[in-house]
Specification:
- This protein is α+β, with helices and mostly antiparallel strands and 198 residues long.
- It has two domains: 4-61; 64-192, START domain (Alpha-D-Glucose-1,6-Bisphosphate, Chain A, domain 4), CATH 3.30.530.
- It contains six helices and seven strands, in the order αααβααββββββα.
- It has helices at residues 4-14, 17-40, 44-61, 76-84, 86-92, 170-192; strands at residues 64-72, 96-98, 106-111, 114-124, 128-135, 144-152, 155-165.
- The protein has a seven-stranded antiparallel sheet with strand order 1-7-6-5-4-3-2.
- A hairpin with a 2-residue loop joins strand 6 (144-152) and strand 7.
- Helix 4 crosses helix 6 (170-192).
- The longest helix has 24 residues, at 17-40.
- The protein is globular.
- The model is unreliable at 9-21 (pLDDT under 50).
Length: 198
């Protein structure tokens, strides 16, 4: 059984795309050992518990998140407006945007031939907004995008997450890069008034 220190180490490395496959392979190896023990022993209770725990860890580790933390020289109110309103979103992310800061509203973002529909699932004024992707490319459907804001000395710490990816793929890696560029665009918009939307 993995001890707590080892589990935390693996958890940190799983967040890095390059280490993800190695961590999954490690868990799979542990699963095979557990299944061998289950077959080899008459006292199955301990082995069965071990296999259940390993399977749960594998399930937890197979979901991947894109995360970016950004320090922005602007108030949380200003950043919140930029990530919740149509005017804000089309100024740093997507020029063809239909959006409202309203629970249940379906925000629509069109990038050429790609159409993304995001249902607004959480709104905490000047603190957080979260969307669930209901229509997009296959790998995005069911994922969640959130913007968490914290005030610090009159400025903002933005914690961005695009979470719930089923696997770390080339699309995941490309989106991770793209989100980094858009976070820079959001920061520039909030600090200077001009972003670089697509």
């Amino acid at each position: 059984m993995l001890d707590l220190v080892e589990e935390q180490r693996v958890s940190k490395s799983v967040k890095k795309a390059g280490a993800y496959m190695r961590a999954t392979a490690c868990f799979n190896s542990l699963l095979k050992v557990g299944e061998f023990l289950l077959k080899a022993t008459k006292k199955k209770t301990d082995a069965e518990i071990e296999i259940i725990l390993i399977r749960q860890r594998i399930k937890l580790k197979t979901m991947a998140d894109i995360r970016h933390n950004v320090a922005i020289k602007a108030t949380p109110e200003k950043v919140y407006k930029a990530v919740t309103t149509q005017e804000g979103l089309e100024s740093w992310w997507c020029k063809q945007t239909t959006a409202k800061p309203e629970l249940g509203f379906i925000n629509i973002f069109i990038f050429g031939k790609f159409r993304n529909e995001m249902k607004v699932t959480e709104l905490l004024a000047n603190r957080k907004t979260e969307w669930e992707c209901i229509n997009s490319i296959d790998e995005w459907i069911g994922t969640k995008i959130s913007f968490d804001l914290e005030e610090k000395n009159g400025n903002s710490i933005l914690r961005f997450t695009h979470g719930g990816w089923k696997a770390v793929t080339d699309t995941y890696a490309g989106c991770n890069y793209d989100w980094a560029q858009f976070m820079k665009s959001l920061k520039t918009l909030c600090e200077t008034g001009t972003g670089t939307p697509s």
